[in-house]
């Protein structure tokens, strides 16, 4: 199943659930169906946040109704989800590229996890760290942050991390965690194998996976 197929599957499930609830409801806003309809509102909102880029038309549409009562925003969220679904199916939407990137990163992280489980923590740490570095540069590019210094040289990943934090792409806690992961990666790359263990690499792999999901590039 491709990344686009996964996105379509999620949207089809939620749109189908909305249609089933609407068929049972006495009102257009489904306000008589509790707790199913409020729950679906939350799930639709979460899916749209997950599948769209900050600043996109879809994200802005969600933001415009976010503060409304659930029964007022549910029909709007359904309409946004329907439009998003059609554009993904037509191959017109950038977030599909983001999901494809996510699939790529997941593949490398699965490789790293397999190596770590087999006792090869050092190459696992390098692979996971490299995956993180590539993702961060893509994330910076997505948000209009240069990955080059004025001299034309490529910024170090620590500098990209600082720039992403300063731009509000993620918070200080996330930035500190990225620094910790990069420290493990650098230790592995420079032969300082005693600075970390398999448990630290396992936690790094899982953390990097969650980070790339939370901040798609």
Number of strands: 0
First-to-last CA distance: 20 Å
Count of individual helical segments: 9
Order of helices and strands: HHHHHHHHH
The whole-number mean of residue pLDDT values reads: 85
The unreliable regions are none
Oligomer: single chain
* Biggest beta sheet attributes: none
Overall geometric form: elongated
Helix percentage range: over 70%
* Strand fraction: under 5%
Rg calc:
21 Å
Structural class: mainly alpha
Explain what this protein looks like in three dimensions.
With 217 residues, the chain is an all-alpha fold. The protein is 72% helix and 0% strand. The chain contains nine helices and no strands. The chain has helices at 3-24, 36-51, 57-65, 70-89, 95-117, 121-142, 157-166, 172-189, 198-214. The chain is elongated, with a radius of gyration of 21 Å. The model has no long low-confidence stretch (mean pLDDT 85).
TL;DR of this structure?
The protein is built from nine helices and no strands.
Describe the protein's topology.
Layout: H1 3-24, H2 36-51, H3 57-65, H4 70-89, H5 95-117, H6 121-142, H7 157-166, H8 172-189, H9 198-214
Helix pairs in contact: 1-2, 1-4, 2-4, 3-4, 5-6, 5-9, 6-7, 6-8, 6-9, 7-8, 8-9
Features:
single chain; 217 residues; mainly alpha; 9 helices; 72% helix
């Amino acid at each position: 199943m491709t990344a686009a197929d996964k996105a379509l599957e999620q949207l089809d499930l939620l749109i189908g659930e909305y249609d089933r609830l609407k068929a049972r409801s006495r009102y257009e806003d489904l306000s008589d169906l509790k707790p199913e309809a409020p729950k679906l509102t939350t799930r639709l909102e979460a899916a749209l946040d997950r599948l769209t880029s900050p600043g996109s038309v879809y994200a802005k549409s969600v933001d415009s109704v976010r503060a409304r009562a659930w029964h007022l925003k549910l029909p709007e969220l359904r309409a946004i989800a329907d439009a998003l679904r059609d554009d993904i199916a037509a191959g017109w939407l950038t977030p599909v590229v983001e999901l494809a990137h996510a699939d790529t990163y997941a593949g490398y992280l699965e490789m790293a996890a397999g190596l770590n489980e087999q006792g090869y923590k050092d190459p696992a740490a390098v692979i996971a760290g490299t995956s993180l570095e590539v993702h961060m540069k893509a994330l910076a590019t997505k948000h209009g942050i240069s990955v080059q210094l004025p001299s034309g040289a490529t910024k170090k990943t620590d500098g990209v991390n600082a720039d992403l934090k300063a731009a509000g792409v993620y918070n200080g806690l996330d930035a500190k965690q990225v620094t910790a992961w990069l420290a493990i990666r650098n230790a592995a790359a420079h032969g300082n194998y005693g600075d970390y263990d398999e448990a630290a690499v396992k936690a790094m792999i899982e953390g990097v996976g969650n980070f790339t999901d939370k901040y798609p590039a």
